[in-house]
């Protein structure tokens, strides 16, 4: 059977992954054999999310009715019911769900009715609390299936402990140094900051993301921190680009994420707050692309673009703009500009000679036929570029895992 849970936390505490870890222990204690656990991220642009739009799926063998009772009790005990936006959902399924529902939930939007129809068709047990929106994520987590998956080891503290986390900074940098690129996003070396723990009052002490259980365990062994009350390794769709759709500029849907190809239409501009923007053109349509201030050095790559450069971009379409996650510069030819030549006689810059074509020196009347040609070297070169780990969204595939296929 598969057990899906979602929407149990609030900005003030709890985390659905923690509740999942507790549930794994309780199921095991009750004689239900847990065979796997997944942390499934869904559309990052869903407005109902608390933080990273995560849902949990536990694979288990045993009595489904008993598992349903244990999971219900666990949610009732631990979910943050006082928070208006917390609307838990539970699904226990003994038959497979269509993977299409997961694809819809990770790339687009779903309704509660659609989720319930999927559960009903497969004869699954379901339960909703409050407005029950969590049934969407719970159903999607049960339906989730894709070839490319990664792993995350999560270490938890007691949920009542809402103070500062005790993790030795140097040990995290060491973990990254010893295990990158097999693990990633533990720290952001370029910006000299820690990425692998939240600054919110939830039970996560730290999380290590990587290519296999072995690699996340190896990295974890370097980490020195307060003593976790629990640790769990989730199989996850994080770092896989599962949210990206192939798109065309003329038909982008609000809240969806795309990979788009086109040419740079104008000179990138740095606006208020340090956000950098330019327009991408494909055939006759244009869309604004944004590299926000938190993307730090990535903005220098964007500033280095020039009209006519051929690029591929990945990012979410929100409020009429693409929020850039990564970019491939395909062509960025040398910029060749012309300007009036210097007068060979007096050294003064010449002026256009109007109808006679060519240039003329106003001072000594010398004429010239050819302009001065300026070759501007570029600050960017072809290749993939990504936002730094500190600005990376959970689902985005880091370049250390390989570049997107085109
Ligand atoms: P955490 O991961 O820390 O538990 P969260 O950021 O995952 O919190 P939730 O509290 O789970 O956020 O809230 C997300 C809500 O949005 C859930 O009710 C979930 O069912 C719903 N949801 C998720 N994906 C979609 C989607 N594609 N369309 C509509 N609703 C969705």
UniProtKB/TrEMBL annotation:
It catalyses: cytidine(34) in tRNA(Ile2) + agmatine + ATP + H2O = 2-agmatinylcytidine(34) in tRNA(Ile2) + AMP + 2 phosphate + 2 H(+). Signal peptide: none annotated. Residues 340-379 form the TiaS C-terminal zinc ribbon domain. Pfam families: TiaS_FLD, TiaS_TCKD, Zn_ribbon_TiaS. Keywords: ATP-binding, Cytoplasm, Ligase, Nucleotide-binding, tRNA processing. GO terms for biological process: tRNA wobble cytosine modification. It comes from the Archaea. One of its GO terms (molecular function) is ligase activity, forming carbon-nitrogen bonds. One of its GO terms (cellular component) is cytoplasm. It is an enzyme of class 6 (ligase). ATP-dependent agmatine transferase that catalyzes the formation of 2-agmatinylcytidine (agm2C) at the wobble position (C34) of tRNA(Ile2), converting the codon specificity from AUG to AUA. This is tRNA(Ile2) 2-agmatinylcytidine synthetase TiaS. The lineage of its organism: Archaea, Methanobacteriati, Methanobacteriota, Stenosarchaea group, Methanomicrobia.
